[in-house]
Amino acid sequence: MLHGKRILLIVAGGIAAFKSLELIRRLRERGANVRCVLTDAGAKFVTPLSLQALTEDKVYSDMFSLTDESEMGHIQLSRDADLLVVAPATANILARMAAGLADDLASTVLLATDKRVLVAPAMNVRMWTHAAMVANVETLKKRGITFIGPNDGAMACNEHGPGRMSEPEEIAAAIEQMIGGERTSASAEKPLAGKRALVTSGPTREALDPVRYISNHSSGKQGHAIAAALAQLGAEVTLVSGPVSVADPRGVRVVKIDSADQMLAACLDAGRVDVAICAAAVADWKAAKPAASKIKKKAGVAPPSLELTANPDILATLSKPGARRPSLVVGFAAETENLVANAIDKRTRKGCDWIVANDVSAATGTFGGERNTVHLITAQGVQEWPTLSKDEVAMRLAGAVALQLGRPRSIKAAE
Ligand code: C5P
Q: Ligand 1 centroid vs 286 CA: distance in angstroms?
């Protein structure tokens, strides 16, 4: 994680600059603060407004801006970060770095910094393999600049080979390796301090009679990991859990229930919360008339028929507009086909804000397994997350929740 880390992202002018927008999201989900320097050429590919909206911070471009220099001089800008990242790093900016030029804000900041620098090159394959570039890269590496990529593949110029900028996820992972996990201030580590969270987890059991029930294979691993991650970020968490064999997460209030009706009652009992995450696999149906005593098997008598009735939809209930509605309601969609389309549809049907969609077809081993491949569906679109452990999915989701709950109202309203 990158909670409380400050990253100065320099966006230079290359077609890969659009990926920098995605990189900002990836970094902010991990808890980092990102501030951008945009070069003149970079501004031909992405707008300062997009960078500003995603970073929720001012974008710096002008070396000679009187306001910027009086508020935050270029020396301070370069020192006020834990890491400088150049993405995309074009042939031009790498050459200027190697030569030690300081002819615009980006190159000046790079020359003035006392922090580590990570560059993600992006250029045509011939430019990357040119002797001048090879020499520049060698010079920069000798000076301690860290490189990620470029990757091999098809390029915008229709050529093929090394030159594609690394994917945002790869760059974010490299940044995490460079500066993640170091000591941060208490408030940065606990961005959810003072927030209340409700999580549902595990299966429900719907009694047919005192000894038999309908249920499903949910292990509760993902829901419990989410409760633990929210608590780790400082939230006061109530976990309403069906019968599971995973241990209670530390620092979380756990309410154990059996049926969907009990789960709903426990959720409503939890009082007002800022975020509700429904990760439970609630049984869709229950017995219309559960028997008060064990249904007897009688020789020669046909098996009893089972009349079912619908369970309350907890996610839809919590999502209902009103004063009690949490600021953020998150549901899960376990699908075996048409994952994204069904999940988008579910988000609207249930009235929740986000859906975490995961493929639970048998081949994925998601049910009861340790890993999960999910898509996060929000009003803004679909984010495809890489395959992660259930703990990593939980931490990343908790980071996204912290980011969302920490946003100023004006930005939430504009979305
Ligand atoms: O409708 P479906 O079961 O596919 O929706 C899944 C989502 O809805 C999950 O977030 C689950 O926790 C929630 N849900 C619920 N109550 C139900 C059924 C599903 O909260 N009765």
A: 14
Distance (Å, rounded) from C-alpha 73 to C-alpha 66? 9
330-380 pLDDT tens trace: 999 988 889 999 999 999 999 999 999 988 776 666 665 677 889 999 998
Q: How many residues comprise the chain? A: 415
Ligand 1, atom 21: nearest CA belongs to which residue? Answer: 313
What span, in angstroms and rounded, lies between the C-alpha atoms of 388 and 398?
14
Ligand 1 binding pocket mutation candidate from 257, 285, 330, 332 (most atoms within 8 A of CB): 332
Q: Is-contact 396 385, C-beta < 8 A? A: yes
Rounded to the nearest angstrom, the distance between the alpha carbon of 7 and the centre of ligand 1 is 38
Tell me whether strands 374-378 and 354-359 are parallel, antiparallel or unpaired: antiparallel
For 301, phi then psi, to 5°, come to -100, 135
Q: State the residue for tokens 């953020």.
A: 328
Q: Would you say 229 and 195 are in contact if contact means Cβ atoms under 8 Å apart?
A: no
Using CB distances shorter than 6 Å, the residues near ligand 1 are: 200, 260, 278-280, 282, 311, 313-315, 331-333, 346
In tens, the pLDDT along 89-133 reads: 999 999 999 999 999 999 999 999 999 999 999 999 999 999 999
Q: Of all protein residues, whose CA lies closest to atom 4 belonging to ligand 1?
A: 333
Cα 201 from Cα 222, distance rounded (Å) = 8
- From the CA of 317, how far away is ligand 1's center (Å)? 10
Low-confidence ranges of the chain (pLDDT < 70): 66-67, 69-72, 181-189, 362-369, 407-415
Q: Whose CA is nearest to atom 17 of ligand 1?
A: 313
| Residue 157 designated active-site | yes
Those residues whose C-beta lies under 8 Å from the C-beta of residue 410, and which sit 6 or more positions away, are: none
* Ordered structural domains, the chain, with CATH: 6-186 (3.40.50.1950), 192-414 (3.40.50.10300)
Neighbours of 180 (CB within 10 A): 18
Q: pLDDT tens digits for 220-244?
A: 999 999 999 999 999 999 999 999 9
